[in-house]
Amino acid sequence: LSEQDIKQLCEKAKEILQNESNVTPVKAPVTVCGDIHGQYHDLMELFRIGGNPPDTNYLFMGDYVDRGYYSLETVTLLVAIKVRYRDRITILRGNHESRQITQVYGFYDECVRKYGNPNVWKYFTDLFDYLPLTAIVENDIFCLHGGLSPHLDTLDQVRKLDRVQEVPHEGAMCDLLWSDPDERCGWGVSPRGAGYTFGQD
What does the record give as the reaction this protein catalyses (predicted)? Predict the structure, then answer.
């Protein structure tokens, strides 16, 4: 797509996403997908096995970009599907949907390599600020990229977070995208430098 087409796509997606809650309700049946990380051919395989949108309802849990060689194609397709079939696909934010992280792990460099300037990277990273943080399937199954936070006790507290910002280095929003489950009970310091570890208790 041209740079201008990407800009318009991101603007349209922003209009849709800004109306979605931090805790987006999702209806079952739904196919839940984890990190794609620029592996466009894996995304195609997911659709081949699971069914193409809008026939299948999808929930993607973040980390669309970085590491793989086709981050642009991957995120462009997912955002285009969101714009076309907004009620059949939910795209959450992962910790890689961030300006800082994408400048280190490949998405920024890929955009500059493919377009000759960082404009497309800016359009997408501005859009990432609007991605919902969590989803809840049939008011029963809580889905998110990272994990829990010691700063949050209720879904209403998640709903009230101001998500339209770069992923912070600490605090509740950071934890939702960075925390990890752990064998040890209680809260622990994350070895990744952001978020927490949390036990089954």
Answer: O-phospho-L-threonyl-[protein] + H2O = L-threonyl-[protein] + phosphate
pTM, two decimal places = 0.93
Residues of the domain holding 46: 3-148
Question: ∠21-77-67 over CA atoms, to 5°?
Answer: 90
Query: Is 199 a domain residue?
Result: no
Q: Is 145 a catalytic residue?
A: no
CATH of residue 82's domain is 3.60.21.10
Report yes or no on 155 lying in a domain. no
* From 41, 96, 145, 169, the catalytic residue: 96
Per-residue burial over 88-113, b if 16 or more Cβ lie within 10 Å, else e, is bbbbbbbbbbbbebbeebbbbbbbee
Q: What is the pLDDT of residues 153-184, one digit of tens each?
A: 999 999 999 999 999 999 999 999 988 666 66
Q: Is the dihedral of CA 201, 162, 82, 178 positive or negative?
A: negative
Residue 55 falls inside a structural domain:
yes
